[in-house]
Write a structure and sequence with these properties.
- The chain is mostly helical and 152 residues long.
- α1 packs across α5 and α5 packs antiparallel against α6.
- It has 2 domains: 88 residues, no CATH class; 61 residues, no CATH class.
Length: 152
């Protein structure tokens, strides 16, 4: 097992982080140009009035499922050199998935954005999304604080 990102040489770390930044910018451009950050597209999907967002989700699955199979089969490493470990988690109690998905969906429907596009929208000039980012960060912080007491 190799060293984590924090203990890698500075030049190598900068290249890795630069690569991640470039991928993030590319992801934001794709989300924006594909209208995946549009509140109207999201509302259309949540009201079952158009298939566009569901087609995008299906295409993501069409890429992710074979990609995960390749990761499992070839035992590839991350950019830092660490092995990528895919844990096999049991399905568990479905109520927790239903409750979590429902809570996520309600937040998505009210705000009109899920966590991925927040940065793309801020970058596109929608400053009000900084409040959404603050809420996402607060929710992440709250989960981290409560996580030891939550059933997992």
């Amino acid at each position: 097992m190799s060293a984590p990102l924090a203990s890698t040489p500075a030049g190598h770390r900068a290249r890795i982080l630069g690569g991640y930044l470039l991928l993030g910018v590319l992801f934001g451009l794709v989300l924006t140009k594909g209208e995946l950050v549009s509140w109207f597209r999201i509302e259309e999907a949540l009201r079952f009035k158009g298939p566009y967002l569901y087609e995008v989700f299906a295409s993501a699955l069409a890429v992710a499922i074979p990609g995960m199979a390749v990761l499992k089969r070839r035992r590839l490493s991350a950019l830092t050199g660490e092995p990528i470990v895919i844990l096999r988690e049991p399905f568990g109690r479905p109520v927790r998935y239903i409750a979590g998905g429902g809570l996520f969906g309600v937040g998505w429907g009210i705000l009109g954005v899920c966590p991925g596009p927040i940065f793309a929208l801020i970058g596109a000039g929608f400053g009000v999304m900084a409040a959404a980012l603050g809420g996402a960060m607060a929710g992440t912080w709250a989960y981290a604080r409560l996580q030891p007491r939550l059933p997992h």
